Amino acid sequence: MNHNNRGLSFSDIDQDWKLALDPDNVFWGVIPKDNGAFHLPDGMINLYKEERGHLDTELHDFRFNADLNSIYIDPTDRCNANCPYCYIPSKIRKSGDQMTEKGLNTVLKKIASHFKNARKKPVIVFHAAEPLLVKDILFEAIDKFSNKFLFGIQTNATLLKKKDVEFIKKRRIGIGISLDAPDANGNNISRTMIKGSGNFEKAVQALDWLDGYKGLNVISTITKYNVNRLSELVRFLHKKKVPCVLLNPVRVTRKPALNLKPDEKEFANALINAVETAMYLSVKSSRQIVVGNFANVILAIISPSARRMMCDISPCGGGRTFLTITANGDMIPCGEFIGFKKFSGGNIFKTSIAEAMKSRPFREIRSRTVEKIQECNTCDFRHICGSPCPAEMYARGNMYQKAKFCESYKEIIKYAFKLIAENKVKYLLRNGEFGVQKRLEMLKFPFLMAVE
Fold first, then answer.
1. Which of 16, 124, 209, 370 could form a disulfide with 376 if both were Cys (CB 3.0 to 4.6 A apart)?
2. Is residue 211 classed exposed, middle or buried when 0-12, 13-18 and 19+ CB atoms within 10 A define those classes?
3. Is the dihedral of CA 22, 62, 302, 237 positive or negative?
4. What is the pLDDT of residue 341?
5. End-to-end CA distance of the chain, in Å?
């Protein structure tokens, strides 16, 4: 890549396309090559000069001035599974705390009080180990606070009943189902249960009950065991009418997960093939399936402040746009920090969310920016990738290291630019979401730019 200090940098996407990009504000143009040469389109530099200040401000505000809008609540530390890559230490998962009905109501009241002047309903996601171990108090709380919050649940589905699914659908609750492979043998290697072999059968039953529900996501953790089966998994989930799947590379926050990390090049190629499969199936069947984490890369390019997943922006969303409340009430920047006591910003039963947001641990996480990370600070893609994750890097001895999947991210981002150049964005994002049509109307050939 050629760098021009502050200004446009030029690099090859592939043999057909050249990228012009200002890494500091994600102004970009994808320019076709002609016999290996390329020419800047008329008006591109003028447009860049016109929009540069606006885009600088927009990205800065998104990075440093975005409001807290989501709370992850871990109503129990415990889990009925024993996944080898879990970021929660096994001792906590076996004998950790659980919230009572009174405790959960107190937490939700304090959250509601914090957001009393918010323009939009905040999002509450019941997460952590296995939240449905205390599903009775969750469902009661959802009914009680439905006028205050938008709710989501992340689960391995082993405790879901058909009546629970009807409750979720009726109240329009978002639900994420954990599933790592398209068959029991592949899935249950990583999604192991304390009793029984794995969650495959129950997860698939839940997908059948949900029957294409719009609020459904499948979350897959990608390891060396399933990395070569991603396209196969996408095909399987498409048949099950799943609208969105996240193919997330394993976080190596805890040492056991290091042994499961897939090869970076292998992961990038597998994800790209899975996206190709998803596009093919969406077009062929007229029933869409989206690879959610790749869709977020597309958004990071065409409309940076519209992205939903806040791991790939610097600083990340932990302790900034979201936080996690553990079963004993500790407020931490993100669930990945559960194993690190020093990152508690206070206990919600004793102090406020506002105080946690101002706490030293939260400020420490917000201070980790790509400008302070060697290699990231000169990388063209630094504000598209964000170099995740601070917890993962802290666990590896230094929070100010580049991302473990750095090389994968570079290949995936280049591929994203290629698909944008080929005018395939409409197949990569959910229909009607993120202002897609508005953004598509702004994409002009022979060059394309992210301009609000």
1. 370
2. exposed
3. positive
4. 85
5. 26
Hunting for tokens 């990583």 — which residue is that? 190
Q: Quick one: residue 319, left, alpha or beta (phi over 0 = left, psi -120 to 50 = alpha)?
A: left
pTM of the model: 0.92
Write the pLDDT tens digit of every residue in 51-93.
Answer: 899 999 999 999 999 999 999 999 999 999 999 998 888 888 8
Instruction: Please tell me the distance from the alpha carbon of residue 212 to that of residue 293, in angstroms, as a whole number.
Output: 19
Pairwise CA distance, residues 361 & 367, whole Å: 10
224-240 average pLDDT score:
97
Asked if 408 and 264 count as a contact pair (C-beta separation under 8 A), the reply is: yes
Q: Is 217 helix (H, G, I), strand (E, B) or coil?
A: strand
CA–CA distances in Å: residue 384 to residues 154, 238, 246, 395? 26, 28, 17, 23
**What is the DSSP code string of 302-337?**
H-GGG---TTSSSS-SBTTTEEEE-TT-BEESSGGG
Of 342, 319, 357, the residue nearest 395 (C-alpha) = 342
Q: Inform me whether the pLDDT recorded for 123 exceeds 50.
A: yes
User: Of 6-15, 67-76, 117-126, 132-141, which gets the smallest average pLDDT?
Assistant: 6-15
Q: How many residues does the chain have?
A: 452
Do residues 296 and 312 touch, judged by C-beta distance below 8 A? yes
Top-confidence residue, 308 or 371: 371
CA distance 202 to 194: 15
Tell me: the pLDDT tens digits for 326-383? 999 999 999 999 989 899 999 999 999 999 999 999 999 999 999 999 999 999 999 9
Instruction: Evaluate whether 27 touches 48 at the Cβ level (below 8 Å).
Output: yes
Q: How far apart are CA 112 and CA 117, in angstroms?
A: 9
Token couple for 275: 């996206």
Q: How far is CA 366 from CA 95, 162, 207, 244, 314, in A?
A: 31, 41, 37, 29, 8
For the stretch 401-432, pLDDT in tens is 999 999 999 999 999 999 999 989 889 998 75
